[in-house]
Specification:
The complex is a heterodimer of chains A (512) and B (315). Chain A is an alpha+beta fold and 512 residues long. Chain A is built from 15 helices and 20 strands. Chain A is globular, with a radius of gyration of 24 Å. Chain B is mainly α and 315 residues long. In chain B, helix 5 runs parallel beside helix 13, helix 6 packs across helix 8 and helix 12 runs antiparallel to helix 13.
């Protein structure tokens, strides 16, 4: 009798394991570092949120593998002779996840909400005079002057103009929309968010893919998996072990010191993120010893050797570049302007420059967070280098939530560390905004920024960007700390994955 | 006894009120605000302020406390700022994992800790005693995260017998078989706690064994096993029961390291994540529930004392 009971249990367990593996074939299990604050792409700029949400939400444009904007929900566009009116034709075969067909009314409502409340919408809203539906599948944008980067801004989905049904977009304010309103047009639709367990998307069976060969985020989007499940696994050791044990198919944000070992493992694929992230040390332009004292800022810049800090923070040389250009080599916006000042690491010269700038040893408050290991590692190295050059650095260590609260108070800091994701257009770099903490807003910047956005001619814009980058090295509102190529790992069983991601990983066109 | 229980339950009211005030105050004293975390790096101070107002977080703290408390008294712990679902749902989800993990851990502690503690005490001074005590010291010294990672490497990555991490609900696919996800974490969590119980049972039993009534029992010629179980162990259990009670409460509320290593959606990790996100309603709700849990367990331990020791009277 007992033997029978044991056999019965064994059969049940075995059949469950088999059932589990069959289910796993249709499910991609992605181990994330945590949970996103929200999936509302218009107002949230978290990279993790975009990694999940760009499978659900789509914009009018996206980027191809060369980081050039291409149509997604937009079929075509025409620009008036004076460059101030843009008529966008929409694809007429797009349905939302709730079954409703997408029309120009949805696009207008979404763009209006983004222009008013979107994280990056304000970059466009000062230049746009109206957004109108001029046909069922046609939208007209009117600008008060030529605005060169409009298409790049529209194509950047992170904090960008995701298209929602009009009734949802019209009712939404600054607060992120609720999960029950996560209705987009993408190849996957929202299914469930179980706190601390997972965010789950399921295939949108009525999805009409854009035509053309898959190219970056452009072209065909084939949803091969039935389900995408994003599981928070905060411990990196568990993410790696879980992937090796077959519990996850993809795991993000793996430390650099494990790269060589994992790269050599035939059961694991290492996938470099094509767009590097770069650390930034912002300087306070509103209050304190660094306010308008560009000479003192240059002295700080001169004291720093970025290579040392990069090596400590990022590990193997394959994972970092001591690159002073804000955009990486090979990118259309790569520029050598000013980069000779990027990493001088000359303490003696810095000391002389600081004295000449009137620095007499006043404490300089440097805020950093431990939430990002590379922020803290680099800040510790910089603090030591600055001390060698005679600077009195008061390193203040906080958690990220406290840091972002304090940095909004100009009397609380002089320097703070943050980082920036790769952006396909320099206008999206945070220092370009006058309102970003640091509050860099000089007449020279304003003039060059107007020149930069006031033309659609890419060659002219590139020339102006050279001048802007040179100005950043001159006035030092922020110091770039070098490029870090983070990497993820994937099961060797996954098919269709590119050797590197464009910006955020995507799983249409992928199977196992 | 019922008078005692009613009195204790009534005394919970002012304690809970005071605890709720302190919780609310401390949570709001932490710098940072959820609006800034929610909107991210690019949000301007004006946008953060606007969302703070929209969420009602710019009201004076005493008013916010009043609103919160009046809802709590109606059984409504509020809505999570980040998940936008009722706090009770978030806590309920985490509680399932934490309670099951604590129960499974307690099973290991009882089945390993008690017998080895009794064995060590009854073989006091022998090699068996040294083996049990030495093993317990080693288990207590090994960090839980280290043990957890090695359990994963051996049983998940190496042998492939058990899942490495996560815990699907018992209501999900797999049902009761999902408990296999908790085997490794409960073992990791049980090791240091079982070690403490071994030491506690051993020392308590040795203390009781020196009492006069045990000497009398021996003089009366009672069988050594009967003396060990009925007289020594039962009296030693009084100290052990208190340890069990608070170990169980700690396993639910403080298993954050194990929950992180095994990626379990439990209460401990929920608190830490909510603090990092400044999800005030969740932090307040979870801590309040933990306070109630500790108070309840305290009461149950007192009741157990009276049951085990006739000298204790509940008044």
């Amino acid at each position: 009798m007992k033997i029978k009971a044991y056999l019965k249990t064994a059969v049940i367990v075995t059949s469950m394991s088999v059932a589990g593996s069959v289910l796993a074939e249709g499910t991609l299990r992605y181990a994330t570092v945590g949970e996103p604050p929200s999936l509302d792409q218009q107002v949230v700029t978290s990279d993790l949120a975009t990694t999940i949400a760009h499978h659900m939400f789509e914009g009018l444009y996206t980027f191809n593998a060369n980081n050039a904007p291409v149509g997604l929900l937009a079929a075509d566009e025409s620009v008036s002779a004076d460059g101030k009116t843009i008529v966008i034709s929409l694809r007429d075969n797009v349905t939302f996840h709730n079954g409703k067909q997408m029309t120009s009314l949805d696009v207008v409502a979404s763009l209006n909400r983004w222009l008013e409340h979107g994280s990056r919408g304000k970059l466009l809203s000062d230049n746009i005079t109206s957004v109108e539906a001029t046909g069922d599948y046609e939208v007209t944008l009117s600008f008060n002057a030529v605005f060169g980067p409009w298409q790049n801004l529209m194509a950047f989905i992170n904090g960008g103009p995701a298209i929602y049904p009009s009734e949802i977009a019209a009712a939404a304010g600054k607060a992120p929309i609720a999960p029950s309103d996560y209705i987009g047009t993408g190849p996957y639709k929202f299914n469930e968010w179980k706190a601390n367990r997972y965010v789950e998307l399921v295939r949108h069976d009525a999805y009409n893919s854009p035509v053309g060969v898959a190219d970056g985020y452009g072209g065909a989007r084939d949803a091969n998996f039935e389900t995408l499940r994003f599981i928070p696994v905060p411990d990196v050791g568990t993410r790696i072990s879980g992937l090796k044990a077959g519990d996850y198919d993809y795991a993000e944000n793996i430390p650099g010191d494990l790269f060589a070992e994992l790269d050599a493992d035939e059961n694991v694929r290492t996938i470099l993120n094509g767009g590097p992230i770069f650390g930034l040390v912002f300087m306070n332009s509103k209050e304190g010893p660094l306010k308008e004292n560009f000479a003192l800022r240059r002295a700080i810049q001169t004291a720093l050797n970025k290579d040392t800090a990069l090596r400590i923070a990022a590990g193997p040389e394959k994972l970092w570049r001591a690159n002073g250009s804000f955009l990486p080599e090979g990118n259309v916006w790569y520029s050598k302007s000013g980069i000779e000042k990027f990493s001088e690491g000359n303490a003696a010269k810095a000391k002389e420059m600081a004295a000449a700038a009137g620095y007499a040893g006043e404490p300089i408050k440097f805020m950093v967070s431990t939430n990002y290991a590379f922020h803290y590692d680099k800040a510790v190295v910089y603090t030591k280098q600055l001390a060698q050059a005679g600077f009195n650095i008061d390193l203040q260590v906080y958690d990220w939530a406290t840091l972002i609260k304090k940095r909004s108070q100009p009397d609380q800091w002089d320097l703070f560390f943050t980082h920036h994701g790769f952006v396909p257009d320099p206008i999206l770099i945070s220092a370009m905004s006058d309102n970003y903490p640091g509050w860099w807003s000089t007449p020279e910047k304003a003039a060059l920024k107007a020149e930069f956005t006031g033309t659609a001619d890419k060659a002219k814009r590139a020339v102006t960007w050279n001048k802007l980058q040179a100005l950043i090295y001159e006035q030092v509102p922020t110091m770039k700390t070098g490029d870090i190529y983070t990497y993820n790992i994937a099961s060797a069983k996954l098919k269709g994955l590119a050797p590197s991601t464009l910006i955020w990983p995507h799983f249409w066109g992928v199977s196992k | 006894m019922s008078v005692f229980i009613i009195k204790r339950l009534l005394s919970l009211i002012p304690t809970l009120l005071l605890a709720s005030m302190l919780i609310f105050l401390f949570v709001h004293l932490i710098p940072g605000d959820p609006a800034a975390v929610l909107l991210g790096d690019l949000a301007t101070p004006e946008e953060v302020a606007a969302l703070t107002t929209e969420m009602g977080l710019d009201e004076p703290v005493y008013l916010q406390y009043y609103y919160w408390l009046s809802h709590v008294l109606q059984g409504d712990l509020g809505t999570s700022i980040f998940f936008q679902v009722p706090v009770s749902t978030v806590i309920g989800d985490g509680a399932e994992t934490s309670i099951l993990l604590a129960l499974m851990t307690m099973i290991w502690i009882i089945t390993i800790g008690l017998p080895l503690g009794i064995l060590a005490a009854s073989r006091h001074g022998t090699f068996v005693d040294q083996l049990c005590s030495g093993g317990a010291m080693m288990a207590a010294s090994v960090p839980t995260f280290w043990l957890g990672l090695y359990l994963i490497l051996i049983f998940s990555v190496g042998l492939g017998w058990l899942p490495s991490s996560g815990f699907p609900s018992l209501t999900d696919d797999g049902g009761v078989f999902n408990l296999r996800y908790l085997i490794l974490p409960s073992l990791a969590l049980a090791a240091p706690n079982a070690a403490l119980i071994i030491r506690l049972v051993r020392s308590s039993m040795l203390d009781v064994a020196r009492e006069d009534f045990v000497r009398t029992a021996r003089a009366k010629g009672l069988h050594p096993t009967r003396i060990a179980v009925k007289h020594v162990f039962r009296n030693a259990l009084i100290a052990v029961v208190a340890a069990f009670g608070f170990t169980f409460a700690a396993l639910i509320s403080e298993a954050v390291v194990t929950e992180t290593v095994f990626s379990l959606p439990g209460i401990g990790r929920l608190v830490v994540q909510s603090i990092l996100r400044r999800d005030y309603p969740v932090i307040q709700g979870v801590i309040l529930v933990i306070v109630v849990l500790y108070m309840t367990i305290n009461l149950l331990v007192d009741l157990a004392y009276a049951r085990l020791d006739p000298r204790v009277s509940l008044k």
